[in-house]
Amino acid sequence: MQDINSLSDLFKYFNSTAFIGSAVVIIIASILLWLIKQYLVKKVAYTTKDDQHKNTFIGMIFNVLQYLVIILAIVTVMKLHGVNIGSIMAGLGIVATIIGLALQDTLKDIISGINIYNNNFYKVGDMVRWNDEECDVKYFSARVTKFQSLKSNSTYTVCNSQIRSIEKIKDRHIATYLFPYDRDKEQIDAVMNRIAERMKEECKPLKSIRYDGICSIETTGVIYEIKYTCAAHKTEQVKDMMAAISYEEFKKSGVAPGFSSMYK
């Protein structure tokens, strides 16, 4: 008789408003999580590949929304089952302390993630030096960052609280050329402008380039500058191409710089 009553109670529960409501809440929460991920991450975050700031922001927002949906779903289910949320909230002092201790690492990661974002430590797509390795920032959320090593192609997933400081590799560079005092400035300007134009036409990874003319006068000669920008991981490729084009143009024009010319 007890078994029959138990089965009857179970059947009543499955047909109750609380069970049906809970099932609906769980389904809606699951759909919301799926939509947030599909829309925010795939449709919004990466529609403009160059918008690194937006990609980074979306990763963090998705994490926060994910936690919000889960918390709201749990609270709603508890209410449907007649749990007095008010009395629970009133006695949450000890529970909050226990949960805080259990989740302190997670909270540290989230706070660190907000700090990284607000202070612009890096963005998705940036090149950084992490643990003495040059890496691409592939993913960023409120809790973790994923770095991909350029050297080994390995991917590192790092908790944000472990990132105290990091070196962002610059994408702005200067090529300096030291010419003796007796070189004609007009000839130098002509050949340097040709170098800049050829780089603009032939070097695909180049973002921008500008010939700035004389930047300083030293005891050893006159220094001319070409400033350019490129993605950090393309720096070596661009430098090699700059050197090759510079050599060709100097050889063709008969105007050559001194031995102290360098790239920074």
Describe the structure.
- Helix 7 packs across helix 8.
- Strands 4-3-2-1-5 form a 5-stranded antiparallel sheet.
- Among the domains are: 2-90; 172-263, GMP Synthetase, Chain A, domain 3 (2-Layer Sandwich).
- Strand 1 (127-130) and strand 2 form a beta hairpin.
- It has 264 residues and is an alpha+beta fold.
- It is built from 8 helices and 9 strands.
- Helix content is 53%, strand content 22%.
- The radius of gyration is 30 Å and the shape is elongated.
- The mean pLDDT is 77.
Query: How many helices?
Result: 8
Query: What is the CA–CA distance across the termini?
Result: 87 Å
What name is given to the CATH topology of the domain at 172-263? GMP Synthetase, Chain A, domain 3
CATH class of the domain at 172-263: Alpha Beta
Share of helix, binned: 40-55%
- Structural Rg: 30 Å
Number of strands: 9
Topology record:
Elements (H helix, E strand, L loop, with lengths): L1 H13 L2 H29 L6 H29 L4 H6 L1 H11 L1 H15 L8 E4 L2 E8 L3 E6 L5 E5 L7 E2 L3 E8 L5 H18 L3 E13 L2 E10 L4 H19 L8 E2 L1
Antiparallel strand pairs: 1-2, 1-5, 2-3, 3-4, 6-8, 6-9, 7-8
Helix pairs in contact: 2-3, 7-8
